[in-house]
Structures are given as structure tokens and as C-alpha cells.
Amino acid sequence: MNNKERITKYKEKVNDVIQKMIYELFKSQPENYIDWMIQYLESVRFQSSKAFSTKIAIEYNLSSEEEENEEVDELPLPVKNAKTFRSSVSAEVFGVHNKKENFIPRVIPKTEEQKQQILEKLMKVFMFQALGQHEQEIVVNAMEEKHYTKDDWVITQGDDGAELYIVFSGELDCFRKMKPTDPEPKFLKKYKPGDMFGELSLLYNSPRAASIQAKEDSVLFALDRSTFNNIVKDATIKKRLQYEEVLSKVELLQSMEAYEKTQICDGLKEQTYQKGEVIIQEGEEGDKFYMVAEGTLAAYKDNNGQQVEVLRYQPGDYFGELALIHKLPRQATIIAETQCVVVYLDSNSFLRLLGPVEDILKRNAETYKKFIQN
Ligand SMILES: Nc1ncnc2c1ncn2[C@@H]1O[C@@H]2COP(=O)(O)O[C@H]2[C@H]1O
């Protein structure tokens, strides 16, 4: 490429950003347009960094023609040509258009019994678990009961999304066309009572990434975009961004789909240990699976009263799976060698979310079979 061509290409790139910014600016007409533009450009910088694309990494639409033959599950930025599924992610993701101050939550009348039933289901969904009582009440009040008969489509891939759903009763199937040219969508998963879906387009202001059909008569509770935005969206995005980086270092999870990894992020809890603190004690019952986010740790086994070091862990490593897979007592004591940050899943979430890598876990566990008591 000669210098003239380079400048032309450069101009195109700069113009593209400026034109989009002006378009968004005129659309929202903020009073303080300088602050708005700074915020917008920061969001674009964040958006176009590689870190961002792997972090948001929720591209369930398709990208450019060159990639047309690949199954893409990352977010291609910026938006490309008309042959693709619509893939834009609005600046709303970054809070530019979020006007929280005017939020008046909707209230759909319900009996106390209905409220209790909704709350019960809500508390099984990770992203609602951390809510305070007042926020829980707002969400429960805003939920709308919806009935679908067998074969009804609840969500159609490519549509705009206005609600997320929690399954109260019934069963639904999730399908997705991986490429616009696919004749048939691929079956992805089933949804049963207590499951949640339809959150992606609310989180990232993107088109529906998959289609969902009732397999039998089903009752769902729908939460509107405005309540979702004001109560759970920021915390969920923050958590996903924060932990996707931690999970990206865990080799075990590399074969998992981006969407499955986001589900793990939602379920993670975090704990810090000081140097010398015991995270797991040999012989005890185990109910958590850990991944190392920061610091180093070591595993010791008791050998006639002597503690013998058998393994070391660093960021990206995991431990605590044996007790959960094989229902064994803890096979080693794990101690923090430095100050450590670990993220963990409880045993139910571990068994549910790590199903796709169970074989790898079992295979890897073979390597320390020699340490396991008969
Ligand atoms: N692999 C997947 N990729 C994208 N969406 C998925 C996947 N599995 C389940 N879904 C759900 O399907 C929903 C379709 O609507 P949304 O894009 O709003 O949110 C999506 C997710 O809740």
C-alpha cells in the first residue's frame, strides 16, 4: 500500500467513527454535547479494543463476508454489510443513553401467592440473586404473566427485544441460525421451569440472538426492558466483563461456547485469601469448585503427619472438582502462598454449567489419580 492509499484508508476509518458519533449525537441531542462526545469516544475506544470484543464476546449474529463460513460467537465491531444479520450494539450498552433518573417502575397487580411464586423462581436466576429486598419487590411487581401454547414462538432471531423471560411452567426449545444462509436453525438447548432467557438483547441492545419456541403449553414471566435496565443490567454487564477475563485464562473452558461462559460468569462468587490461609482442608466435605484469578496456591497431602506439597496453582488453574465429580472428601489441603483471589461456583452450579467440559475434567483428573486415596 502506498502513502496515498494509506491516507485514504485512514480517512475512511476516521470518518466512519465521526459520522456515527454525529448521527448518535443528533439523535439524542444532549445539552452537554462535549461531555457526551467524550463519553461516546471513550465507549468506542473500549468497544474496539480486542479486550472488549472478547469480553462482551456475545456475538451471536454474523460478521463479514470473509467469515461467512465460520461459526462466529464473538461480537464483530463495527457493523458491516447488508449480507449480515444486523449486529449493531447501541451506545446504550455503555450508558450513553441510559436516563435512569426518570425511571418509574411498572406495577402489574398480583396476589401475594403469585408474588411468592415469582420470587421463588427469580432467586434461582443468578443475575437476580444479589438484589436487595426492595429491588426484588420492584422486579416482582414489574413481571407480567404470559401464556403460550405448544409451537408458539416466544422469540424470533433477528427481532428487537423488549423483555426477558423466566419459565414458570412448561418447556421450550432454543434454536439459532449460525449463518444467514443456513436453511435450518440449529437446536441449542431446552428451557424448563426456573430457567431464564432473552437477556442478551436487553444487556447489549442487540437483536435477538436465537429463536425460542414453546414445546408444550408454557407460562412465562416477562420482565420489561426499562425495569431490567434500571435494576440489573449494569451489575450483570460489570460482572460479565470482570469475570470473562478471568475465565479466558482457564484452559479447561476454552472449548465452551461464549454463551455458556457468560452463564458461568453470572454464577461466580469471589473470595480473597491472605498468604497462609487454608481454602480447602483435606478430608472435609466439598461443595465448591474454584478457579484462580490472582496469586499462587499450593496443594498438600498428609503423609503420616507430614504435609507434602503435591501441586501448585496459578491464575487460570482450577481445583476442587474431584469432590464434586466423584463425591469424595477433599483429597488435599489447598493453601494460599501469596494473597489470592479465587472465583468459585457452588456444587449445583458446577454440575449444571460445567456439564459440557465434564469429560475434560475427568480426563485431567487422571493426572493426579496417584494422589487420590482408594
Ligand atoms: N448459544 C446461544 N447464543 C445466543 N443466545 C442464546 C444461546 N443459548 C441461549 N440463548 C438465549 O436465546 C435468547 C434469544 O434472545 P436474546 O438474544 O435476547 O437472548 C438469548 C439467550 O437468552
UniProtKB/TrEMBL annotation:
Molecular function as annotated in GO: cAMP binding; cAMP-dependent protein kinase inhibitor activity; protein kinase A catalytic subunit binding
Residues where 3',5'-cyclic AMP 2 binds: E321, R330
GO cellular component: cAMP-dependent protein kinase complex; cytosol
UniProt-listed SUPFAM superfamilies: cAMP-binding domain-like (SSF51206)
GO terms (BP aspect): adenylate cyclase-activating G protein-coupled receptor signaling pathway; cellular response to stress
PROSITE patterns tied to this protein: CNMP_BINDING_1 (PS00888), CNMP_BINDING_2 (PS00889), CNMP_BINDING_3 (PS50042)
Amino-acid positions noted as binding 3',5'-cyclic AMP 1 in the UniProt annotation, renumbered to this chain: E199, R208
Pfam families: cNMP_binding (PF00027)
Domain Cyclic nucleotide-binding: 127-249, 252-371
Residues annotated as signal peptide: none
Name of the protein in its database record: cAMP-dependent protein kinase regulatory subunit
Native source species: Paramecium tetraurelia
Lineage: Eukaryota, Sar, Alveolata, Ciliophora, Intramacronucleata
